[in-house]
Amino acid sequence: MYTHHVYIEGIVAVMSIGHTLLGLLETGPRHGYDLKQSYDARFGQDRPLHYGQVYSTLSRLLKNGLVEVDGVEHGGGPDRKRYAVTAAGVTDVEDWLARPEKPEPYLQNTLYTKVVLALLTGRGAAELLDAQRAEHLRLMRELTRRKSGGGLADQLICDHALFHLEADLRWLELTAARLDRLAAEVRS
Amino acid sequence: MTALLAGTGLAKVFGPTPALVDASLRVDAGEIVAIMGPSGSGKSTLLHCLAGIVRPDAGRVEYDGRELSALPDAARSALRRGEFGFVFQFGQLVPELSCAENVALPLRLGGAGRRDAARRAADWLDRLEVGGAARQRPGEVSGGQAQRVAVARALVTGPRVVFADEPTGALDSLNGERVMDLFTAAARDGGAAVVLVTHEARVAAYADREVVVRDGATPDRAGVAP
Questions:
Q1: Domain end among A77, A98, A119
Q2: Which residue spans within B88-166 are E strands per DSSP?
Q3: Global confidence as pTM
Q4: ipTM above threshold 0.95
Q5: Number of structural domains, chain A?
Q6: Looking at chain A from residue 138 to 177, which residues have their Cβ under 8 Å from any Cβ of chain B?
């Protein structure tokens, strides 16, 4: 169900790239290329930004008055624009940081669906849970190894994944313990 | 390859209750194995059988080519003192002794001189960043500190096998992680085999593999064939 790649993608997908770029620009004006490098180093993990994403986001921020062009370098190749955050952009970042993220309710759950379908169709739900358990632990071992070899930023991102995977595992164990009752309920 | 420690077909009954029915587990030098399973499934009994604390009713435990269950009590005690290290959920330190004396205890029992034992104990306490607690008694330090003292006591002799039963159970995440880093170092750098009972997946994730015990058995035989 989870792979490390998918998990990181999940984090990036819910993260606002626009706000993140604005926040990075608040530390000083940058070219699009430097902005991408800075984003990838801090937040890209296994999934760096595409240049297209950086420039389309910057042009949207420019249109909305959240960034401005701070200078243009004319060189041998295409002109390089340097972007700076505006006062409105700073306020936007501040609002975003102050606003709590909506907690995920996790009510649409593929694992739950699989367990119920296995029970309904007379397949081995316990085996399904065991196989999932082993897969979760395999990924947790991989993340733990990565954590011990990495810096603090890597440790924190891996811990976030590890705590979520552990929550899944606890659910898997509880469900395994309640499988007989669930089977009776599903088949009634 | 011959395992450093292997239990095969282990069974144990306490009164009317079978605690182990058919459990097997093997661990090589430098390897960390986590024993997992629901409460009351026999995890701790399996650990105690492997460590020679409990004699199984059936099955055999082999350590370094010797059958542990066939050894006389005195020989098993000597083995536990000299080659095994133990950590439990609540440190089980001797309350009357200072933290430093607790760590020095297995060295003294093994015949080390007072000064040598004290120096090695102090080294370990410093390494675990609890040097400041050396003169205090276990009751006077925090749970996290006491557990690190217990880990120092388990590792000070350079054991070939470390047995740990819920070693992080009483600790917060950060202290639990420190304890697991120490076990990992004991295995990776010191070549120790580590057998770990835990219900926490994040702790089990430090292991090379896990063996699941259900109703006193290790049904998938994962303990035998890694």
A1: A98
A2: 161-165
A3: 0.81
A4: no
A5: 2
A6: 140-141, 143-144, 148, 162-163, 165-166, 169-170, 173, 177
